[in-house]
Amino acid sequence: MTDISFQLYSARSAPDLAATLKMLAATGYTQVEGYGALYADATKVEAVQAALAQTGLKMPSGHFSLDMLENSPDRVCEIAGKLDISRVFCPHIGPGDRPADAAGWRDFGARLEKASAPIRDAGLAFGWHNHDFEFAALDDGSTPMEHILAGGPDLEWEADIAWIIRGGGDPLAWIDGHGARITAVHVKDIAPQGECADEDGWADVGHGTVDWAALVAALARCDVKLWVAEHDKPSDPERFARRSYDAISKLLGGRA
C-alpha cells in the first residue's frame, strides 16, 4: 500500500501539534510534510521531533522559504537532519518578487538551482512547489512554470494539481510534458462553483470537482515518491484528514 502524507499547513489552526499527529497516525497516515512555522526556532523543531517519535510518523519532505534557503542553508540542512527530511521544496514567492517576463522567470529558475547547491551537497533532493501564478500566460503566451523548469534543469517538481487548475492550466498536459520532473504531488480538491466559500472554494479530496482517478492514472507514468493531502483552509482539519485519507487510499489502491 502506498504511504500517504499530510501537509501540516492544513492543520495550522489546530492548537496541539502532538494531538494532531496522533489523530493523523490513527487515521492511517504514515507521513507528514513540514512547513516554515514548524521549524521557526530550535524549540519548535524539538517539539516536532518529539511528536514524530511518539507517533511513528515520518517527515520525508518539508517546505522552506526562499529566504531561508538562500541565507541560511546550513540551518535548513540541520533541521532536515533532525527531522529526517530527505526532500526540500521551496513553496512560494510573494507578488512583489515575481518576475514580469519570460527572461525573468528563467533567471528565477536559475536562482532556485543555485540555492539548491548546498542542499544537494548535503544529500537532499530539492524542488519547487507551485501555486496558480506560474500558469498565468505572460505577454508572449508562455507561462512562468515552463521557464522555471528550463532555468532550473535539475529541479524536482512538487506538483500541486488543484493550483494548476485554478491557474488555468491543464494538469494532464503538464504531466504529459513535464512528468519526469514530478517527484511529489499535492492531492487536493476544488469545491463545485459557489460551494465551500468559507474554505476559499477548496474541498476535501474526493468531495470536489477534480478528476483524481484520471490524474492518478496519468501520474502512474511518473516517479512520484510522495502523495501529500492538502487543503489550504479547512474549517475542520480532522474532517478533511479523515475524508481525504479514505479517498486517496481508494485512488491509490494497492500501488507499491
UniProtKB/TrEMBL annotation:
Boundaries of every Xylose isomerase-like TIM barrel domain copy: 23-232
Pfam families: AP_endonuc_2
Coiled coil: none
Protein name: TIM barrel protein
